[in-house]
């Protein structure tokens, strides 16, 4: 199966409501789509969202990395030489993890199609269903309470609440969410780097003293501040998950060796795809550090790739793949079925994507 051509396009998918975190506010998913064509007629699909505030990858940067480096590297190669292909992809340009992730997943899609096996089974997995949390955006406490009631009515039993935009209000926000959710709903929070280390410890311990029962906190401090992260991890009663601090497998290893976090968040857009995500998962298995799998504001192609990985690896115990359910429509044909919090992986070969409606080809 030889790669003959790569076509790039874009899709726009409106969100149900604006997505607001300590870093940004967004009202639609605007992603780059990668279609990898082969001489057998098989097509592999990939997707990358521009998340300049997190990865530094803009739409122009993703398209440029693909056109100038990545596409030239893969066209003409055989999908059956998969390890060679993965190493060449990793080496052809530094950083640019979103563009690499889009190509990586399209190649896994083709490799699975070549051997007629779904990717999660190719990776040894047997789990067919996973349960995702849903994000509650950072707003005033009353609006967050309303969003909480709405999410619980939609059947979600785990909420991921965004905090950190205005630290003086965070305890009040969380109190409103806990009151609206009741005692049985699991609540995890994400500060998106919004706190200073000492401030984080104070806020988290206040939350616990008030009985707000936080499952864990994501990225309380700045991404580069591994020492600050470790400070919070050692002093807070709330477990700490490293998200923006962990891009590469090397970052993950450093965090684990330092004991700087209790948990690690794997996102394909940060690490450059499934090939590198597997290395983070392996390191986590060695260190006994459980992982979350997360996504950016992504439509179903790339989140579906993350679903395959999550269904394959038992060390991934926390699922934060709510991109598709935050969208008001789904232009992707095939792939996993997203029924609110329940996600069921597809048994079609590869990643099981059959097409995308409304692609604007570049
Ligand atoms: Mg996060």
Q: Sum up the overall morphology in one term.
A: globular
| SSE string, helices as H and strands as E | EEEHHHHEEHEHEHEHEHEHHEHEHEEEEE
Bound molecules: magnesium ion
Q: Which CATH class of the largest domain applies here?
A: Alpha Beta
Instruction: Report the biggest beta sheet as strand number plus sense, adding barrel if it closes.
Output: 8 strands, parallel
Task: Tally the beta strands.
Answer: 17
Placed side by side, the strands forming the largest sheet appear as 5-6-7-8-9-10-11-12
Q: Could you report the average pLDDT, rounded to the nearest whole number?
A: 97
The helix tally amounts to 13
Uncertain segments are none
Instruction: State the CATH architecture of the largest domain.
Output: Alpha-Beta Barrel
Strand fraction: 15-25%
State the end-to-end CA separation.
Answer: 25 Å
Considering the protein shown, what is the CATH homologous superfamily of the largest domain? Enolase-like C-terminal domain
Alpha-beta classification: alpha/beta
Radius of gyration from the alpha-carbon trace, in angstroms: 20 Å
Characterise the protein shown here.
- The chain is an alpha/beta fold.
- The chain has two domains: 114 residues, Enolase-like, N-terminal domain (Enolase-like, domain 1), CATH 3.30.390; 236 residues, Enolase-like C-terminal domain (TIM Barrel).
- Helix content is 39%, strand content 25%.
- The protein is built from 13 helices and 17 strands.
- Strands 5-6-7-8-9-10-11-12 form an eight-stranded parallel β-sheet.
- β6, α6 and β7 form a beta-alpha-beta unit.
- α2 packs antiparallel against α3, α5 packs parallel to α6 and α6 packs parallel to α7.
- The radius of gyration is 20 Å and the shape is globular.
- The chain starts with a strand and ends with a strand.
- The chain binds magnesium ion.
- Magnesium ion binds next to loops.
